[in-house]
Amino acid sequence: MDVKQQSAQFVTWYGSGTDGTSPTESQWTQILSRASDKPVTLINFFKLNAAATYADGTTGQTGQEAFASYAAASMPAMERAGGRFLYVGPFQGMFLGQDEDWDLVAIGAYPDLTALVALYSDSAYREAFHHRTAACLRQKVLVCGD
Q1: Domain 37-145, CATH
Q2: DSSP readout, 60-108?
Q3: C-alpha–C-alpha distance, residues 25 and 47, integer Å
Q4: Order of strands, edge to edge, in the sheet holding 84-90?
């Protein structure tokens, strides 16, 4: 599958990204165009909803509970894909730069692009992703690596 087809597949699975809950097609294309043999590190910032907001109207969970449901599936999926977390924990503030308000930071490292693609292709991860969407008021993910 070429980059354009893979990007389109991820948009089909995860949505267009225009609402900020997943990468846009151009963001997928950008990351999938990276050298496939270079390490990839993603720095995730999460601001959680007080109450989870599921697209189907399901209620009764906090954002933190919904995120825990996502994490219960995503952490093993990441390990299966060959990735690992360098840090998962609370955001404690800014040291330099404009102040930002986040609840949680997760830094995930992948040995190569193939491992990252394997995570997002994992069916258990895809099935759990709606918990992440419901949990987050907003999120930001930075891409780092060679």
Answers
A1: 3.30.70.100
A2: S-BHHHHHHHHHHHHHHHHHHHT-EEEEEEE----SSSS----SEEEEE
A3: 23
A4: 84-90, 104-110, 40-48, 136-145
Q: What CA–CA distance (Å, rounded) separates 23 from 17? A: 5
Q: Which two tokens stand for residue 60?
A: 């009764």
Distance, CA of 45 to CA of 87 (rounded, Å): 12
**Sign (positive/negative) of CA torsion 131, 120, 146, 33?**
negative
C-alpha to C-alpha distance for 54 and 49, rounded to whole angstroms: 11
pTM of the entire predicted model? 0.91
What are 58-117's pLDDT values in tens digits? Answer: 889 999 999 999 999 999 999 999 999 999 999 999 999 999 999 999 999 999 999 999
Domain ranges within the chain, ordered by starting residue: 1-33, 37-145
Which residue has tokens 């060679």? 146
The rounded distance, in Å, linking the Cα atoms of 27 and 43 is 15
- Calculated CA dihedral for residues 127, 135, 69, 55, nearest 10 degrees: -40
